[in-house]
Design brief:
homodimer, 417 residues, alpha/beta, Aminopeptidase, Alpha-Beta Plaits, four-stranded antiparallel beta sheet, 12 helices, 35% helix, metal ion binding (chains A, B)
Chain lengths: 417, 417
């Protein structure tokens, strides 16, 4: 496999617009920025070198297709190349890269598929810029609610609509990227695990059964801003000291729920904004963002309920008003058991050990699962670190993932099926 | 006094660049911005109408002088007109306005002072923009450490040096605003109380003995950023959940210290910054800003020590590193007891009830006290609310303050002294 490994190594750097993978600041290719576009251009160029037809749709998704027959169905594989701020170079890229590499492997083996194969590079998977994730795959799956997100802004005050127009697309036509159900037969995504279960279970490849979609809450506590030096401790309505115990509570309750039953739940107070956030003014308003995930939707709901009850208690004890806004509440997504079975079979066939698991992170495949038969493969990443400059997956694991995809595509698009 | 009250009402609006005082968003005239400059222009115009000579110094302070004799000493009065973001229209303005109004009162009474009188409108008192306060009065008093602040930036990335140059000043010469000790005889500031002690004690005017200067700490906890969905609760180094109990601890310990002895102490966790502060990433780094004040310097030190010890405990229990940086540690300032006595005498002479107190907030007078004999007067403000759009002082209380200043100036600059 040295040829495949070299190819992966070279094109991993290219898709990351990088000379090496080890940057202290990591990679920043936020949604619908020129950095994401540059990486899309690299995708186009690699795909064209493999002899694929490349086109972009109205949402900025890139489709690279091995087109064999107008009448034949299309089997799709893909992921994304955008990143969080100071993120890693594998989240997303791994799936796009191994998809393209699998095409190379099939071509090197002189395989002649009887179905079309598309490698999709989805636009704007990460929510880091606008708080809205998987925009490209939502558009393809017909799940994009334009009205709902039009006025969402990034931290520079640029709306998602403006960003999309700056990207060279038209806001008016973005939802025309929707693909009819009949056009695709199935969709497969490969992603880094962003956890350590594959390694812990001494396996090679993770085969995902369910994706834990989040409940996201925005909790706003409103007290009264006042001068820090002249307002006695007894006459304050400090929104920050009032809400601070909730940060501890969320962690405690997540740990408690995990100790009480077997299905894992994770919960994080991941964002905060303080008004006015200056040294000599008591915080008058605090907003916390809370992210809760589990494949068991009832567990997420249970924690959200406990958070609400705890906020009521705070309101009773302290002179603050608390408002909870549910930003996101998506039920968990389950992948097609038949695809899970097929992936298991091909993984074992080429002598790798599969591990069946759930995903704590959302991916483009969640949207695709709404319309098509789908599968999700994980490859290990070091220490489970992700969304961080230290994110790392080995070329060896990328090659294993490529082999599984190639083998799967052979089975799915070969003549004997 | 209807004439004085009308004058105060009219010029209060003018200095606030406003048609009315009741704006939901309050007033925003941050340090060294065009809004501060506009208000300085109004100050110049009012002073000139009163027949005063107006000049600006190298730090942007405005000096309006009733010049009677080159050989005579100068008695000064003043405050500032800059504000915090969405602040009130009385913090600072009250002192500048009543200083000018006192000149009007003396002139209306045909008083002929034998000393010069200057009303100073100090530049950039508030720390809201750069985290550095009382820049103008520091320059006058020779306390400005240019090296120390040159690279400080506002939230738009503009350095204090750039802001000062944009304001029309030269960074090179800003410290030449220093005034020799011999040039001034004394300095008096009037300010709104920003508390409720005058009212609680059924008095008219607060006469301040000491100013509680802050200790300000910057506490940074460093953990490890990671994906919120895929990192089990047991494998996290969440900097926010690690440091959150400190927010509660600071409030608890301030209350405890207040219950143990009589000198008040206040402490506030007033700022927070989270990295990366996005919904799907566990906080990797949190920085809290803590403001501690008391006229008893040993009490401030005691709380700072307890905070440090508590942070060590957190480090022992959680996988985070905590670094504490002392931003500010200024000893409390005591005003001239002779001036306190003179202010008490004149207040009682015109049949107002004085109340002797300490100040929890820093003011320009702190710097002036370093070099000259100084006094600080407070007038009541509604519910003690300050640094907030609802900040309010009555015209009646502004008029009382004006009368006390005028009476003091008569005594200090009259022939019989």
């Amino acid at each position: 496999m040295p040829d495949l490994q070299n190819w992966l190594e070279t094109n991993l750097l290219k898709l990351n617009l990088a000379e090496e993978m080890d940057y202290e600041q990591g990679f920043s290719r936020l949604s619908y920025t020129k950095e994401e576009k540059q990486s899309h251009h690299v995708f186009q160029s690699i795909a064209q070198d493999l002899g694929l037809e490349v086109k972009a749709d109205q949402a900025g998704n890139q489709w690279a297709t091995w087109h064999v027959d107008d009448q034949a169905p299309t089997v799709a594989v893909g992921s994304h190349v955008d990143t969080v701020k100071n993120g890693g170079g594998y989240d997303g890229v791994a799936g796009v890269l191994t998809g393209l590499a699998a095409i190379k492997a099939l071509k090197d083996q002189n395989i002649k598929p009887v179905k079309n194969i598309s490698i999709i590079c989805f636009a704007s998977e990460e929510s880091a810029r606008f708080g809205v994730s998987t925009i490209g795959s939502k558009a393809i799956s017909g799940l994009l609610d334009k009205e709902d997100i039009a006025s969402v802004k990034d931290t520079d005050g640029i709306t998602i609509k403006e960003a999309i127009e700056d990207f060279g697309l038209s806001w008016e036509t973005i939802d025309q990227a929707e693909v009819p159900e009949s056009k695709l037969e199935s969709f497969l995504e490969l992603h880094i695990e962003q956890g350590t279960q594959i390694e812990t279970n001494d396996a090679d490849i993770g085969i995902v059964r369910g994706v834990a979609c989040p409940i996201r809450l925005q909790v706003t506590a409103t007290g009264m801003a006042n001068h820090t030096g002249t307002t006695p401790m007894t006459r304050r309505s400090d929104a920050f000291t009032a809400i601070a115990p909730l940060i501890t509570f969320v962690e405690e309750q997540a740990n408690l729920l995990n100790s009480e039953q077997d299905i894992p739940l994770v919960a994080t107070v991941s964002t905060v904004s303080l008004e006015p956030n200056v040294m000599n003014v008591i915080p008058g308003e605090v907003t916390l963002g809370i992210d809760i995930r589990s494949v068991a939707d009832s567990l997420k709901k249970e924690l959200a309920d406990r958070i609400q009850a705890y906020c009521h208690k705070i309101e009773e004890k302290r002179s603050v008003d608390i408002h909870i806004h549910t930003l996101v509440d998506n039920p968990s997504v389950f992948l097609d058991p038949k695809v899970v079975e097929k992936l298991t079979k091909v993984t074992e066939k080429i002598n790798y050990k599969p591990f069946h698991m759930d995903s704590g992170a959302g991916h483009d495949v969640m949207n695709m699962a709404n319309k098509w038969s789908t599968g999700l493969l994980f490859i290990p990443c070091e220490q489970g670190i992700s969304h961080h400059p230290k994110e790392f997956a080995s070329i060896n694991d990328l090659a294993k993932g490529t082999q599984v995809i190639a083998e799967y595509l052979k089975e799915e698009t070969g003549e004997d099926l």
